[in-house]
Amino acid sequence: MKACELLPRMFPAWIRGRIRCFRTGGLQPDGLAPAAYYGCLLLRPREVALDDPEQPRLMEKLLAAMGARPVAWPERMDCCGAGQVPAVPAMVHRQVNRLVGSARNAGARAIVTACPMCQSNLDAYQNSEGMPVFYLSKVVAGALGAEADSFLRRHLVPAEGLLSGAV
Distance between CA 166 and CA 105 in Å, rounded? Predict the structure, then answer.
């Protein structure tokens, strides 16, 4: 077994028994309705992809294991524009707003991604969509007991409304 095959096989089952913060006043995933966003980091090139490049499900399984109800949306594998910000910022702006709009139309209340560039672009280049974007490791940290405040720091789109009692 390759090292990159270990996470998809063991992580969702491993985390199920360690969820604390989500059930005790932290981020409440029951109403979160996150859109898992793969972008182009986790699925390309095919030889090192962490999931099926055509029909990924790893992040949805992980989010569901934490109690969230991930939404299905067609653009979850599209590129956010990544490093094109300095060269063609208008293109990145259009792409980000297309992605965020698609996630919202699918019923998402937040986007979760594992790529730091995607998290930055999706958070910074939205028009007025108001869609919070979480880095996957922050969501996992919350499931493992991190303080809820750690989810909200340094987000350009406020995420306070997604905390317990406001979902």
Answer: 21
